[in-house]
Structures are given as structure tokens and as C-alpha cells.
Write a structure and sequence with these properties.
Residues 3-70 form the ABM domain. With 103 residues, the protein is an alpha+beta fold. It has one domain (3-90): 2-Layer Sandwich (Alpha-Beta Plaits). Helix content is 35%, strand content 26%. It contains three helices and four strands. The chain has helices spanning 16-33, 58-65, 68-77, and strands at residues 3-9, 37-44, 49-55, 86-90. The protein has a four-stranded antiparallel sheet. It is globular, with a radius of gyration of 14 Å. 17% of the residues are buried.
């Protein structure tokens, strides 16, 4: 069963552009390098950046956490965030139509 992750990143305002650039690079690398990635998408809010992710299974998510792309991303983000990254790992709860009721 797929695993959905929502990671909310709160960049320090002075570093927002650099944080976005690091995340954009990470998206490109994860799409190319991390097996089992079904969705890895960056979204912007006024004071936050949100990664919405979907992995084929828990093993793929675990491997992603140890991937070079993530290790390098976390190194780039060090000292540039206003607080810790809020990572929520979610299990789908399909309701309604198959195309609209799940990510």
C-alpha cells in the first residue's frame, strides 16, 4: 500500500530563496534517483514550503530517507530554517471515487 508524506518546512525569511533552490534540486534528484517515488512535489505557502510525497511502500520511503539527495538536502538546510521540519507519514484512507478520493 502506498505511503503519503507531508513535510512542512519553515525557512528563515533571509534564506527562503536558497532553501527553495535546495528543495528544487532535491526534487529533480529524487525523481531521477529514488526508486518507488510516485509523487514528490514542492508547494509554497506564505511562510512555509510543503513537500507532498507518495511512495510505493514503507521500504521505498525508508530508502529515500537514507538517499544521497536527502542527506545533501539536509546539509544545505542546516541553519536556514526557522524551526524543525514537520514530517507527517500518512496512510491513505480512500473515500469517494478512485481518482479523487486518494493521492
Amino acid at each position: 500500500m502506498s505511503v503519503v508524506v507531508v513535510a512542512t518546512i519553515y525557512p528563515n525569511a533571509a534564506w527562503r530563496g536558497e532553501v527553495i533552490a535546495a528543495l528544487e534540486n532535491s526534487v529533480i534528484r529524487v525523481h531521477a534517483e529514488d526508486m518507488g517515488c510516485e509523487l514528490y512535489a514542492l508547494h509554497e505557502g506564505r511562510d512555509r514550503l510543503v513537500m507532498v510525497e507518495k511512495w510505493v511502500n514503507e521500504a521505498a520511503l525508508t530508502a529515500h530517507g537514507d538517499s544521497p539527495a536527502i542527506i545533501e538536502l539536509l546539509a544545505h538546510l542546516d541553519g536556514k530554517l526557522a524551526g524543525p521540519i514537520d514530517v507527517q507519514v500518512l496512510s491513505p484512507h480512500p473515500t469517494g471515487t478512485p481518482g479523487q478520493g486518494t493521492v
